[in-house]
Amino acid sequence: MNEKLTKKVLVIDDEPMVIDELVEFLDKNGYLSTICQNADDALAAAQTDTFDLIISDINLGTANGLELCQQIHELEAANETPVIFLSGAQIPDIIRRSHSAGGAYYVRKPFDPEVMIELIDKAMWLPTLTANRIRFHENISREPVLC
Questions:
Q1: Which one has a higher pLDDT value, 146 or 99?
Q2: Across the beta sheet with 83-87, what order do the strands follow?
Q3: CATH number of the domain encompassing residue 87
């Protein structure tokens, strides 16, 4: 069985055309998608299910995708879930702000499918890399090393 078929992605966007493009793209690449078109549905989905990745628009009508993902990361089951933010808007300092909100990557709309799949694959490894690094540092002797 394709390993990607077990990977679940929460897609949050209020534009049906973007959702269709993302879902088709994710499906073609073997990922399972859950679609939410507003912040309330996305938060509810994150409270009832676990996801390997979140792809979220920054502008969600009356909601802010940055704030939404911070709320999702406050949930115990989702605090390590990587986020890729999408936006077509020209927002000052958005890359720094997206990283501060817990985003692994920021992608401009329209996105390049080849770049997007590479970023998705990399983002999915982030929790594993972080956990391995923590375990490594926990196992390092606290004694000075003599050379």
A1: 99
A2: 32-36, 8-12, 53-57, 83-87, 103-108
A3: 3.40.50.2300
